[in-house]
Amino acid sequence: MKRFRLIAIFVLTATIIISAHEGKEHKKTISEAMPDTIIVVGKDTFAINGKAVNKSVLKQEPVVEKEPEFVLKPGEQIFAHLHNKMVHFPIALTLVAFLFSLLNIKRRDYDLVIKILLGLSFVVAIAAFFTGNIQLAPFIGDPKEWLANIHRLTGIISSILILLWGASLFIERIKKYSWVIGLIVVAAILITGFLGGVLAH
After folding, report:
1. Helices (DSSP H) in 22-135: which residue ranges?
2. Of 198, 87, 90, 92, which Cα lies nearest the Cα of 150?
3. How far apart are CA 143 and CA 148, in angstroms?
4. What is the pLDDT of residues 158-195, one digit of tens each?
């Protein structure tokens, strides 16, 4: 009788345990739960689960793409980005004109030199304005568009100030104070150049 009870308890317990797990997924081991990691290089399988399967792939050197060698073509490149080439002239010419203006405060020997320098500077500044307008297109919709517009505005102001500075040299009453206008022009043109440098780089 005792034996029969033990067998009945065993069968009942086994039935409960088996029925409790029916329809439920068993926990998988780590290797069963994670999918295989396959690394493919080109068309070759490089590794499965971190183990190399293709020794020839391991020996391959990484391919480094070199930039093509730069070729200087002056005929083409002289007209590319004309604005960037021209803007240096108004800056240099106005700075030299300002130095002559400082020398001119006492001696008045350099009026003609300053007028010529400012005339050239104004002409190149106008050319720089038009070439700059052509190069403005890539900045439309760009995060630097606002900076390009400020650079354009400071360029216009600088050009007008160069013209006023040159005109002041023809008016006797203000001629000796023209260096003050020159100082303002230098400040304006340096600000314009700085903003242009930020845009170009």
Report:
1. 30-33, 55-59, 74-77, 82-86, 88-107, 111-134
2. 198
3. 10
4. 999 999 999 999 998 888 888 999 999 999 999 999 99
